[in-house]
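Appendix B, record 7
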Amino acid sequence: MQKVCRSLSGPEYKMELVCIVQIIYTQKFLKVMDDTKERLKEQDEFNYKKLLIRTLLGTVALVLLFVAVGMIFKAPLNNYSKLFVDNYGIYAVFSGFFVTAISPVPLPDHALSAFALIGGMNFIVNVGISTLGSLSGGIMAYYLGRLAKNTRLYKKLMKRYRAKSENLINKHGVKGLAIACLTPIPDSPVMWICGTLDLPIKNFVVTVLICRAIKIAYALWFIQLGLMTI
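Structure tokens (predicted):
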């Protein structure tokens, strides 16, 4: 375009000026488009630092909650949690984590295992039963997501979390599932989406088993440390 502009002479100098201005603005426009694409790409990627901070803050908040409740209602909390473990124990913890994992809407789960911990349930047993319940519910959610993905009920239940969960798995695959299982990102809708998108079941099971065990263990460990201060 510059050669064309320079070939113009005499009264055509205005046209040459227009050509130069057009070239400059075209270059600036292309630069802005490239910068915008880069910003969008960066926004689409995970901010792992923020995720880590959210995870730590969530864990601290949970610990402080149980410490506060333990300090105010120490005697009744100990009594009721002991009855809970003696009468329901393993079955209640397993069922609680199974239900929270299979639910397409995120539900809290660590409170139940913490209550069992206060009632005297062994730490390792607690982590193991909680993990098995979460894994069993997750596998059920996986197959429900695969079977029901074209139904109206599925679309209605997953309306709020579907887009983000699909984006997470489409872009990061098993890594995205691990992130959901280890951080405050709602993991139960992601488990449904894994079935919807046909993530390999073997990868799904191994990832959920390991990552949920880690998350449950560190949450209970912090809660145990907090309860020791009461």
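Remarks on this record: The chain is about 80% helix and 0% strand. The CA atoms of residues 49 and 55 lie 10 Å apart.
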